[in-house]
Amino acid sequence: MPTDTFFRLPEEKRARILEGAWSEFTAVPYAEASINRIVQTSRIPRGSFYQYFENLDDLIIQSTAYCMAKVEDDFMAKAP
Q: pLDDT digits over 26-72, tens only?
C-alpha cells in the first residue's frame, strides 16, 4: 500500500509516477522492471520512491488500479 506521503502529493505528480510505472510494467516483464527507469520516467528522485512505496509490488498494484480507473472513466465518458 502506498504511503500517506504519496496520497498527499499533487494529483499531477501522482499521475506522472503511476503512468511512468505503467509504462515500465507494460514494456518489460515484471521481473525485469527497473526502479531506476521508473524514477527517471517519472522525474522523481530515487529516494522519493521509497517515501511513497515499500517496493515494486506496492507500485504495480497502485498503477494498475489507477490505469483501470482511467479506462473506466474514458469508457463512461463515451457511453451514450
A: 999 999 999 999 999 999 999 999 999 999 999 999 999 998 998 88
Whole-angstrom distance, CA of residue 10 vs CA of residue 34: 24
The model's pTM:
0.85
Q: Determine contact, residues 52/2, Cβ cutoff 8 Å.
A: yes
Inter-CA distances, 20 with 1, 46, 60, 76, 78, Å: 18, 13, 11, 24, 25
Name the helix (H) or strand (E) containing 2: none
Judge whether 33 and 25 are in contact, CB under 8 Å. yes
Instruction: State the distance between the two ends of the chain, measured CA to CA, in whole angstroms.
Output: 35
Residue with cell 521508473: 38
